[in-house]
Write a structure and sequence with these properties.
It contains nine helices and twelve strands. With about 260 residues, it is of the alpha/beta class. The protein has one domain: P-loop containing nucleotide triphosphate hydrolases (Rossmann fold, 3-Layer(aba) Sandwich), CATH 3.40.50.300. The protein has a six-stranded mixed beta sheet with strand order 6-9-10-3-11-12, sandwiched between helices. A four-stranded antiparallel beta sheet has the order 2-1-4-5. The chain starts with 5 loop residues before the first strand and ends with a helix. It binds adenosine-5'-triphosphate and magnesium ion (MG). Magnesium ion (MG) binds near residues 45 and 170.
């Protein structure tokens, strides 16, 4: 197997002085898809933002290794250039910057000399077509007036163009209609391959019918309380998080004050 693509060990993270992640360990191999599920507020987006190097998220303990290298000292732009990509749960609008310019700039930063401006338009057009995105999208300002589904497609369009090594998809399925869910999932599946690792955050088992995960993790109150195969998602769908929430309460009661 060699060096894992992403190796997180004993990760503790503070946000605004409050501990949100309380000792997470997780290892993603190249080519794998790991699904991360958990109740609202359990820390899924906190983990995504921490992996991307958001300055608000302070690592107090533990390690994050990407291809064997410690990420903690690297700024967000360096992580992105290195091939880490985050599809945001809530993508924000960027006034005055068109989708084409935004993606072109990101690609220049990521690929440097290897970026081919001549090929760019063609590649963008093909990627948009395969994601069922209208051509007029390219000249619109990023996320400005986009519908919920268009925002999510735009995230996957960026992913298709930037060809990351590690993609963190934070609830990319939320707000998608049934057809869009299929199109976006097909888009993600096309990008799957031996060098790409995916951390797929979702609330719904139905996404995992389209994108089959190798491993499913359950995150409750900042800890991974269980990991298993794709059948774990079915069990969660049937039973919810209640069994784990109980465990959380018991755990709290035994912690000395
Ligand atoms: N920037 C921040 N400032 C203050 N609190 C924060 C911040 N980011 C996260 N938190 C808190 O951390 C906890 C975990 O939030 P997070 O967004 O990681 O949850 P989540 O698992 O992604 O939930 P959801 O399923 O609703 O998206 C919440 O209690 C949230 O209020
Ligand atoms: Mg979230």
């Amino acid at each position: 197997m060699g060096t894992p693509l992403l190796e997180i060990t004993g990760l503790h993270v503070l946000v605004e002085g409050k501990e949100i992640l309380k000792g997470i360990s997780l290892s993603v191999e190249k080519g794998q898809v790991h699904a991360l599920m958990g109740p609202n507020g359990s820390g899924k987006s906190t983990l995504s933002n921490t992996l991307m190097g958001h300055p608000k998220y302070q690592v107090t303990q533990g390690k994050i290794l990407f291809q064997g290298e410690d990420l903690t000292a690297l700024k967000t732009d360096a992580r992105a250039r290195g091939g880490i990509f985050l599809a945001f749960q809530y993508p924000t609008a960027i006034q005055g910057v068109s989708v084409a310019n935004f993606i072109r700039t990101a690609m220049k930063a990521r690929f440097g000399e290897k970026f081919q401006p001549k090929e760019f338009r063609k590649e963008l057009k093909a990627a948009m077509a395969s994601l069922g995105v209208d051509e007029s999208f390219a000249t619109r300002y990023v996320n400005d007036g986009f519908s919920g589904g268009e925002k999510k497609r735009h995230e996957i369009l960026q992913m298709a163009m930037l060809k990351p090594l590690l993609a963190i998809l934070d609830e990319t399925d939320s707000g998608l209609d049934i057809d869009a869910l299929r199109t976006v999932s097909e888009g993600i599946n096309r990008l799957r391959g031996p060098s790409l690792g995916i951390l797929l955050i979702t609330h719904y088992q139905r996404l995992l019918n389209y994108i089959e995960p190798d491993v499913v993790h359950v995150l409750v109150d900042g800890r991974i309380v269980r990991s298993g195969g794709k059948e774990l998602a079915l069990e969660l769908e049937a039973k919810g998080y209640a069994p784990y929430e109980t465990a959380k309460t018991e755990q709290k009661e035994t912690v000395p004050q």
